[in-house]
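Thread: quick sanity check before group meeting

JM: Hey all, I'm pulling together slides for Thursday and realized we never actually wrote out the predicted structure for the chain we discussed last week. Dropping the sequence here so it's in one place. If anyone has concerns about the input, flag it before I start.
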Amino acid sequence: MTVQSESQLENELIAQLQGLGYQFIQLKDETQLLSNLKKQIEQANGLAPLSEAEWKQVISFLNSGTVFERAKNLRDLFPVKFDDGTSKHIFFLSEDPSKNIYQVTNQITIDHRDYNGRTSRFDVTILVNGLPLVQIELKKRGMEIAEAFNQTLRYTREAYWAGQGLFNFIQLFVISNGANTRYYSNGTTGIEFAFPWADISNKHINEIVDFAEAFLNQQHLTQMLTQYMVMLETTKSLMVLRPYQIYAVQKIVQHVQTSKNNGYIWHTTGSGKTLTSFKASQIIMKMPDVEKVLFVVDRNDLDTQTSREFNAFKADSVDSTDSTHTLVKQLDQRHDKLIVTTIQKLNRAISNDRYQEYINYLKDKKVVFIFDECHRSQFGDTHQNIKKFFANAQMFGFTGTPIFEENSQSKAGLKLTTDYLFHECLHKYVIVDAIRDRNVLQFQIDYRGKYTAKGMATNESYEEDVEGIDTKELYDNPQRLEMIARYIVNIHDTKTRNREFTAMFCVSSVETLTQYYEMFEKVQAEKQKQDEERGRLFKPLTIATIFSYAANEAVPVDEQNGLIQEEAADIPSQINQSSRGKLDRYIAKYNQQFKTNYNSGDQFYAYYRDIADRVKKKQIDILLVVNMFLTGFDSKPLNTLYVDKNLKYHGLIQAFSRTNRVYNDKKPFGNIICFRNLKRATDEALALFSNKDAQKVVLVPSFEEIKQDYDAAVQKLLKITPDYQSVDDLMTEDQQLEFIKAFREVMRYNAQLQTFIEYDQNQTALDKQHFANFASKYADLCRDVRKTTKKEKVSVLDDVDFQLDLLHSDRINVGYIINLLQMALDSGNETKRKKYEAQVHDLIGNEVTLHDKQELIQKFIEENMPKMINGQSVQSVFAAFWDAEKEQAYQHLCEQENLKPEAMKTVLENYEFTKRLPRKEELKDLPNFKVKLFERETVFNQLWDKTKQFIQTFYTGL
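JM (edit): ok, ran it. Output follows.
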């Protein structure tokens, strides 16, 4: 039996889509695409054929803007002024499938030879009212689906913007090799964010035939395009909901329509509950019998980006104060149906008599409440206050860790479970589901319990070492705290891949936290001095902290249910002056390091938010906390949690889950390093919140198990190619493919092992040098394949995902250079100083990532270093120098190219946030002059090159 070819797969899919009601139309190029677009818009809107002048209005509106701006235009009405003086608003996409026209075409060719001398042909395109909204890229069975994803990325860079740019209207991509199928929104840059479709029980629908039946039918596809896409204003990008998010929204909407009971959604921590709950709010607000929808969030859970996103939808809904004025004003406006607010403001509004006259009319109206996180806010007085005020309220909660009887509190003889407060679970998506779907990562847990002169015990001796040491006297022993601090300083670079990631350290009390903070200062100062004496470079870890300084600051985890008691990021009513004094010292050090001006008074919440941002930007190595940031805080670059605190049930899962956000290939799992006896608590929590077999899915195999897999992968590789020179002897592409797959497995296991401190690659059958030699051959093969251009693909290597990111781990950047220069300045010894400066010169000359900064770094060394005195901060002087050079280069670029400075500032700010180079269409607002049509391509190509160069010089590698 022959393998189904790509063309057969394509033809069968088109035939299936025709059976689902799509009209097949053959369109060869953009000219035919435009002609068809005009006809479909006329037909969908019931228009007579548009004149040239009338059509010009429409196409001018469509042919402008970025992918994000076009997505918004797609959903707007456009006023056409007809030649007879009348006008009419036309639509491009309707929520009602009966009003849309659905077509399918294939192999449209787009000409972009003026850009790179090539043309592109796209596999299968779904047109809605003539616009290409869904692009399907196929690979034959047996090929890797990742290459279909990579192909859409290439088209995004090279082809979709060409001509009239109609392919920038693509909202969704679908990729498939027949056996595996994924979908994702336009703008997605990593295949980890391409999702399988699933049924309501979270079972994947992978086969393209089954996927097409469930996902591409016109009813469902229209819902995906009109209801389940999200326009993110802060990043100007598109997102699409995942299956479990969509089912949750549908269940809530159905419950509002058919029941008066409350309900809750159990979606595991890290699965995107905020987005799901917000989307449900938007849909419910359109129901005529619903007076108001209140989407309620916890202010302390919101980082700057999330707050900006909510405020973009509803101005001042989330701010740094507890003022309820804006909320009450919104509640008083009868036309304002959806209100975004914080739990703090809501509670104040309904509890204060002076607001009653403005909001009393809502008492008997149908008001729907959606709580972004219900596991904390609803077990106090707030829930009862809402029920008391709103007689006809319907409440929905989202939680990743419900309260069951096993972990519940009792009040007046009642078990306060999530079921008790919210009646029933409407949809479930537990941590086992999320890990299987790769929406969150597994945990790799080290239990380090025995404290001796030799260091920490390993996992193997954990049980006998740790049992029986659970006493405050032992935990608070300064000798123990110092040993743990030294241990963390020594292993941190291994756990975070040379600080490419960040960490949190949660401890039992403010008193213990302050001891740890000062212990880190002591340990790091000693280590830095020792390493300098030995001629080694040690860059101290950046430690930041925040905690409540309330008089009753000993805030334990509830011993019965494991709930982490929240520490408010506000000035407490009763103050512990000793704790506040220490926090003031830590904030002062933070201000000195980051050139900020925060305090523990009116700037305390701003300080809280700034810390959250800097952790996400990897400017803080370890965030030291008691309870703050252990729930609700998301940071993808955070991969490690150190634990010296008793945790159980809800609190344990919440805390551990700070580390398991999907990021990239270098973050295979979340690292948990426990300095307390938490193994039994971990087992019980996983059993409670998933199932008794969850450990097999949620926890990463042990070091020994992964090492065995690595050794087996190495043996397989060496059987194919005994040494790296033999890679050159692989004669056929099939042999090369076998090597690529074998070495890729070695890379994958090696990447996992590198986060274990026990791992020494030089003690394996493939030491670091041999690994590097094989990696060079692997990279060479990748370059050979990528640079080969073919009109028709005939090589099996064309469809291989090389995963080059796994090849690199060490990072030599500007920060590394600054530390060497600081050591040179502080050496006090001319010989050592020259040694460090010579090392810097070698690095900037040989490190490819520093080539575009070489001239500037050299200028700093020659002009600034001689003027500096011993003890002065190279980092602060270099930062001032760099900012001045950047501003001067920025002004020069804007003046030289005649650009709008504010528009360029926006482009650069977007890069800082997204870390993605701008697309050419995103530069359209930069010129301070009108670009002639025939010069457009040349002007924007040159402008893109200069913008890229500016970003690479001043923003990357820092």
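AS: nice. The chain has five domains: 6-229, 241-429, 446-700, 713-807, 814-954. Residues 814-954 form one domain.
JM: adding both to the slides.
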